Task: structure prediction
Amino acid sequence: MNKKNFDKVIMTFTEIYEKELTLKALEIYFRAFEKIPDDKVEILIEECLKKCKYFPKPADVFECLAEYEPDDYDDDDYLRYPVSYTHLTLPTKRIV
Result:
């Protein structure tokens, strides 16, 4: 996923779920999403908005994609990202 599409995804999620992300969290999301094809961005947004009650973690996003197009994601690296980033110490300063 390119930067423009990443920004579209994050801006949609932050607006709908009313959540702010730190710069470190944005970096983590970008690294996790960079292998998602750009032509899947609209599907990603639509599926996540239908299924996620809370701001989606990377694992939630890949799960939504896998449910939408299971053949495209079953044997790939998309679902092998860590589910939790609790071991990270993130700065307390938030961005909007």
The chain has one domain: 3-80.
